[in-house]
Amino acid sequence: MILLGDFNAPAPDGDAYQMLLAAEYVDTWQLDSHGTGYTCCQDKALQNEASEHRKRIDQIFVRNLDPPTAVMTSTIGDKPEDKLSSGLWPSDHAGVVAHLAFE
Questions:
Q1: What is the pTM of this model?
Q2: Using one digit for the tens of pLDDT, what is the confidence trace for 46-95?
Q3: Where do the structural domains in the chain lie, given as residue ranges?
Q4: What are the C-alpha distances in Å from 18 to residues 11, 21, 56, 76, 79?
């Protein structure tokens, strides 16, 4: 099973995050990641100059699957070059991407 979303539960101490770990879900960010993984939150107007992401509340979890043989987890929409032509951030959250391979 693959479970992903905006859990509004900061890793690693949020209640929902801890509940998922207790239910034997594995946070793909812990398997292989680059950077902080912060996904929240830009200014509501999306006009802030630098990224204001300071929490990791959007996650991808796996459970009941053989451990992935290849994993790469990263964020998108959180770098200055990701801004739209209008100069706005694409969203108040960054996206999380996990590349998983199973045998």
A1: 0.88
A2: 999 999 999 999 999 999 877 676 689 999 999 999 999 999 999 999 99
A3: 2-101
A4: 8, 5, 13, 24, 28
| Distances 12 to 47, 83, 86, 91, 101 between C-alpha atoms, Å | 29, 28, 34, 23, 25
**What is the rounded distance in angstroms from the CA atom of residue 67 to the CA atom of residue 91?**
32
Distance CA 38, CA 78 (A): 9
Cis peptide before 67 (omega within 30 of 0): no
Enumerate the H helices of the chain as residue ranges.
15-22, 28-31
Domain 2-101 has CATH 2.60.40.1120: no
d(CA 21, CA 70): 21
